[in-house]
From TrEMBL, chains A, B, C, D:
Cofactor notes: Binds 1 zinc ion per subunit.
A Pfam cross-reference name: S-methyl_trans
Molecular function GO labels: betaine-homocysteine S-methyltransferase activity; zinc ion binding
Transmembrane segments: none
Residue ranges of domain Hcy-binding in the record: 1-300
Pathway(s) per entry: Amino-acid biosynthesis; L-methionine biosynthesis via de novo pathway; L-methionine from L-homocysteine (BhmT route): step 1/1
Organism: Sparus aurata
Name this protein carries in UniProt: Betaine homocysteine methyltransferase isoform 5
């Protein structure tokens, strides 16, 4: 990954797994654990393939919340071990990645243990165990993601760096900083000092907000005279009301988020903004489906020099509508139309904004 | 299918294929043809499986717009024939249906030929050809769907009945009637007289509107002293502004429909309403994903006596949120919360309704 | 009035009194009685003057709900009699009308007695008493308004015609008909047969809906071979959700109607539509302020040949903004800008439509 | 005024004049000059009376934009001098104030001269001339208002203090500071050092935002060890999108602001918030009608010990609806109903927020 980033390549990430597989019937909301890698490998494999086909250069292992402590609390799959899931997930990611020259990233996320014990020893032991599972398999680099305390992310980076592999680290924080108020710039500095090769933001907030936070990280690194690659994998939902707590504080979370879903045209704007901000690893998190990933690859096709496989089934900016039978739909086969459309919700009795349930930002 | 319906069973249909596979990267919007059955069988198979797992009792063949005339106009896949697609689609549907005791329905939809030639002979020849493809394979019954002129649907039914198999027929019309103004009640009468065993509505409009149209069909049949089973497979989008033209007239069609997507809770209301209206074949069309189908099966679990396999990954009415870490999310683990939620769009600069582009209803 | 209407003149009506004087502190919501004509004549006089200055050709007496039975039930002003109010109101209307060559219309509205007693004798006695008060003073013609049962309006017309004066009659009904379901066309026929010289609609629904109802009245009269002048005095609020019950069924009635208020640009559209429908007496009811009346006069200035006095303080279509200090405000000094503006509510947590509280239309 | 404020009295201000008189037909939008004081004294007198009756303890002279330079640029009334208007306005304010024991405030606002010449001498000469007009008449104190550069406000205060009278000074700025970025706290300090006895905010932004800005002023004064009374007279419109430029940057300004109008219930919340912030002079600006002023007086009735005259025509929290004929309207005769109502706009094709036209805040 570093070789490609150092060469100036734009890396397209993949999309979100748990919320999409929840909708497909393989993940349980509230638990959000990835036992489907063992129980229904064909479902995970297919989703990997969709992202690959859409242009993803990295396939992340489907190992979200797959630390032993989380699985135990969840109690969802008593007869499947974390090691089984981690190893199966590595195999699936590798199988699909190899179909298209993509890289495999082994992913670790925040542990319940951090908040309850706050013990560096215990938390690091958990990360170490998960890393060891990954190292039995063939992965290319690590991603630490969905961590909202920079301290825990630093611990994860420190553990993972002992493997000698490249490590990316993305926090799920807002422009206001992590859950203890550490500003994004300082978070970035701490992560890079801990050994992270790539830093950035994932999940919790909408694309433009996440890009804004990564910019703050970049400024922090520049002030500190440090260098790192930047990555961003935001939510695929509009979350203008959110503060520190992110989208879990919205009244619609997690079962009525449909209306907030971003369109492919929102993605064009996001991908351009991320690129202009100097971010070179651009993907998505919850809410990002294959067509969103394709939209990243299409927006940056000129810079990257090629279109993804899935673009054979997509007219750029709606071009394929030219053959529609209705004249008013044919009139939509152009960029201006979609760029300027303000999509209606179809729900006149619903508001456009909702008060977050948390008090973090107040 | 008739045996099960006659026995009073509630049949859960499957969801939408073309729009979902467009998002996954396998179908081209504007063309909407089903060559993926040949090109990417694993993608079609996986979507079939999601619907089966969600509770579908019928797997429809992925053969939308798969008439020779439509494929030719579309020009999308010059080296794949309609017969190849139809046969591959039958095999895929059968394979997955057999995994869960479901039935296979061979599906035909409206032909471009009807509007251009208006020739009964030509249109019937097209339907005959597609039927013959299906009859080479093992299907259980036929569904005529997405036809907006009752006359064309009658022709299709007449052709398909020559096979000796059960035929269901769903029009994509509004409560105002078909494109020539034939009211739903009269449409139903004509279809039943032509031989349809099951009649109803699919696509074009939102769930509650489609149920309303089926009710008008039922009234028409009762007045005429006719009997037939009823089915409904509506859009998974809110379309309060639409008139005769249906959702293709909305400014958001087809690439910015996200915000109109229905939630699983909307489905509960719809499934109950459809059941109360006496409809016993209840499914979905464009916009219906696996979790929407599961919601039908969950709403009618008491009537049917069981839950679908995918419910093992779903707490009813959000019950699994009880184990969430945030207290305000745990507070959402109850029916009242989700039933009464008015989801915000997160788009304060967007309106809630948009004027349809057509003039049909004026 | 008849002479002017027969000559083809477009008569501009005045606006709403009770809701406006409630906001100014002189009328009590819930009671809505017009004792201010006695208690605060300067406030009533000033509002009359604003309408006159805005272009009104008719000044209606401020005698809404001023029947003896209503005043008694209301209990609001025990020491002021209906006769006192009626006479004071006539004097005020006459005084201001004479300042600008306008006509005075003596107004009667629905009586509580109609619903409770349903006695033709009693209801007619009440109208007779109020008419006698008016006849002591100098009024030009009568208007029956805000009646939702055509039968009661017919009784009122029959009484008032005994005076020998011209009578206009406006019902507060929807396109679906009066409270007993009598359709607008039949209502119009009954009123004209009872002697009404002018018929139409006032209050309860928004401008475009009221024009639609008057069109139905016109069609009814034409089918019956009858002739009458048409008038319309709608609400100054957007009420897209309303059915038979009108705006009192909206959750916002009466103390949060602000956000539904129509703009002057909405009025241009309404005045043109009313004129095109053949309506020649065009005014307003609750929610119509002086600037709305001025907008009627401005939209129809070419047809009428002159502008009202208040237009000296108004640039047509925003023309006077040309001298604003901000360039972006100067850019609004043109018709296209205001005609196409979709005004934002500034309330992102509020919906755009609300369910009516009544069940009339279901 | 100082005696009353020092004694701890809560002073209720009056509402907005120019926008309200524009709607009534006496002020020209774009010019916004107060020649009506000479041309139509009865209209100004009546509006003064409505505010007095609603509970205002201060009647402001209707002298907005009444400096010689502004009148000249406006060119609206070539044959009426500024002195004539100023003197007529003082007489009108005094006449009405005396009807109810209110005070008269002579008001000066920002001058075009400040931006064009930036000359302290010239600007002060203009303020001096207007002050001299006022001093020929009987006024109680001065208010400097609607100034967006603190420097100009300081000059005005310095001039007006030479009269020996009390001076209040309100800026039309946002929490981000004045047009040159001077923060509210520092603005307050400068004004008090210049001699202002009362400082605060008026116009440009919605009530809660203005209270927030006054709080920042208060903090600034406390840090500087200074003391002054606080006042606030905000817009009567919701302006959540606005930044430095205030409401003139909204697309709806000035002719489609209806939908943003605040309700009387919004005022209750505002008045309480202002009171809790220690503000003791609480009134309104553009968009505040008599019933909004009454709502201030009603919310603070317990603290002040009495209700205003206009409350005789108002049931507190909708109490008078108890006698309405419809049961669902009677059910609204309670505080909880109105406090929790989220009023619908009745405009489903309109958005809830609009992008400001200026770039000040970016």
């Amino acid at each position: 990954i570093l070789k490609r980033l150092n060469a100036g390549e734009v890396i397209v990430g993949d999309g979100g797994y748990v919320m999409q597989l929840e909708r497909r019937g393989y993940v349980k909301a509230g638990h959000w654990t990835p036992e489907a890698a063992v129980e229904h490998p064909e479902a995970v494999r297919q989703l990997h393939r969709e992202f690959l086909r859409a242009g993803a250069n990295v396939i992340q292992t489907f190992t979200f919340y797959c630390s032993e402590d989380k699985l135990e609390i969840s109690g969802n799959v008593p007869n499947i071990t974390g090691a089984q899931i981690n190893e199966a997930a590595c195999d699936l990611a590798r199988e699909v990645a190899n179909e298209g020259g993509a890289l495999v990233a082994g992913c670790v996320s925040k542990t319940p243990c951090y908040v309850t014990s706050h013990s560096e020893t215990e938390v690091k032991a958990i990360f170490k165990k998960q890393m060891d599972d990954f190292l039995k398999k063939d992965i290319d680099f690590f991603i630490v993601e969905f961590v909202d305390h920079v301290e825990e992310a630093v611990w994860a980076v420190e553990v993972l760096k002992t493997s000698g592999k490249t490590v990316g680290a993305t926090l799920c924080i807002s422009p206001h900083g992590d859950m203890k108020g550490v500003p994004p710039g300082e978070c970035a500095v701490r992560l890079v000092k801990a050994g992270a090769d790539i830093v950035g933001i994932n999940c919790h907030l909408d694309p433009m907000t996440c890009v804004r936070t990564v910019k703050l990280m970049k400024e922090g690194l520049e002030k500190a005279g440090l260098k790192a690659h930047l990555m961003v994998q935001p939510l695929g939902f509009h979350t203008p009301e959110c503060n520190l707590g992110g989208y879990t504080s919205l009244p619609e979370y997690p079962f009525a988020m449909e209306t907030r879903a971003i369109t492919r045209w929102d993605i064009h704007e996001y991908a351009r903004e991320a690129y202009n901000a100097g971010i070179r690893y651009i993907g998505g998190c919850c809410g990002f489906e294959a067509y969103h990933i394709r939209a990243i690859a299409e927006e940056l096709a000129a810079e990257r020099g090629f279109l993804p496989p899935a673009s054979e089934k997509h007219g750029l900016w709606g071009a394929a509508l030219e053959m529609h039978t209705k004249p008013w739909v044919r009139a939509r086969a152009r960029r201006e139309y979609w760029e300027n459309l303000l999509p209606a919700s179809g729900r006149p009795k619903c508001p456009s904004m909702a008060p977050p349930a948390d008090n973090y930002g107040k």
